[in-house]
Design goal:
The protein has about 220 residues and is α/β, with parallel strands linked by helices. It is about 25% helix and about 25% strand. The chain is globular, with a radius of gyration of 16 Å. It holds the Pfam family Methyltransf_25.
């Protein structure tokens, strides 16, 4: 782990010891992801999904419950231990993996990629690299869903988190991955979230480059 990511394991270790709470753990999946799935009845049979920075597993379990063969990864081993304890009968494949150093065999390996508030937890100078890593997971014809805090203006917050600007959201559109849909969703207290879809078009379906191979 680098200095920019080592704090994740420290936080989860303190949480496991009962010394602090994990600030983003809600004991339920991200409501913006729940809402998105309710409006997008995806065909999951035979499809692989990956959840980036899965933490305690709430989003990953939701995706698995929809029928996807789901992998979920986090850099913090204690987070994965807590997720397995919380969901002892889970079908999810939990893996300790660094987003900034992904396994080569994961390249373009997943039909559905879920990135929820992970990149924004990294310093801004890592946002482009991290977003490119996320995009690299998307298979040909696959779909990436990004949920993140949105930042307007030039002032960089004293994070973490460091919500993404509109330009930074564009970092996911790299290496053949294209931006398809971008929403701004109010979440209270004057805050907004990005909820965006990105797709890697299938060259065999050039008549509709925004269409995935299974939606």
């Amino acid at each position: 782990m680098s200095d920019a990511t080592a704090w994740f394991e420290a936080l989860y270790a303190e949480a496991a010891a009962g010394d602090r709470d994990v600030p983003w753990d809600r004991d339920y999946p991200n409501p913006l992801l729940v809402e998105w799935l309710a409006n997008h009845p995806l065909e999951a049979a035979g499809k692989r999904a990956v959840v980036v920075g899965c933490g305690l597993g709430n989003d990953a379990e939701l995706i698995a419950a929809r029928g996807f063969d789901t992998t979920a990864f986090d850099i913090a081993p204690t987070a994965l231990e807590l997720a397995r304890h919380r969901y002892p009968d889970s079908p999810v494949h939990y893996r300790q993996v660094d987003l900034l150093d992904l396994p080569p065999d994961w390249h373009q390996a997943y039909d559905l990629v879920i990135e929820s508030i992970t990149v924004q937890a990294l310093p801004p100078d890592l946002h482009e690299q991290a977003a490119a890593g996320v995009a690299s997971l998307v298979s040909i014809g696959g779909l990436l869903v990004v949920i993140s805090g949105a930042r307007v203006g030039d002032e960089i917050p004293d994070g973490p988190p460091w919500p993404l600007t509109g330009d930074e959201l564009g970092y996911f559109a790299v290496d053949g991955v294209e931006r398809a849909v971008v929403e701004t969703v109010p979440v209270g207290d004057g805050r907004i979230r990005w909820r965006a879809e990105f797709r890697r078009p299938d060259p065999e379906h050039d008549e509709d480059k925004t269409q995935s191979h299974w939606l």
